[in-house]
Amino acid sequence: MVEPADTVHYQLAVGEVSSGASLLQRAVPVYPPALLATCPAPTQIQALLVVDKSGHVGEVRVAGEAQSDEPHRLFIAAVRAAALQWQFQPLQFDQWADDADGGRHRVSSQTRPFSAAYRVSLYMPCRTCASLQRSGGWFLIR
Questions:
Q1: Which pTM does this prediction carry?
Q2: Which residues constitute the domain of residue 46?
Q3: Residue 118 to residue 14: CA distance in whole angstroms
């Protein structure tokens, strides 16, 4: 996925450490019901998730979405609906300083928004479409 031009890269200051930004909970994309009868080829959606300071996904960006055909747009919509339910541990930055007695103490702490790129594969083997109509399909998230 091409990195958007407005992407900000955080630089750690001396004595600053970052933690968090790990995926805590994810929802599974539901295979688009409108596509069950046609059993299209497996598809991959590369999405950039924009995560706010509290760890909630606020935006899902997919490159080339406007030029996608209808089946691909349905897959994108399924991935977007699921990803908007994902929860991340907030990205936290802590500033530490040395004490006069050789110890350390936290000077400041803040959370910041971040983005994370994911590739989601949705596929439905045609020989099993009928039996999987109620299961929501198969997926793989990397």
A1: 0.78
A2: 16-141
A3: 31
Q: SS3 letters for the chain?
A: CCCCCCCCCCCCCCCEEEECCCEEECCCCCCCHHHCCCCCCCEEEEEEEEECCCCEEEEEECCCHHHCCHHHHHHHHHHHHHHCCCEECCEEEEEEEECCCCCEEEEEEEEECEEEEEEEEEECCHHHHHHHCCCCCEEEEC
Rounded distance, CA 29 to CA 86, Å? 11
> Residues 26-49: pLDDT tens digits?
998 888 888 877 877 778 888 999
Question: How big is the chain, counted in residues?
Answer: 142
Domain with residue 89: its CATH number is 3.30.2420.10
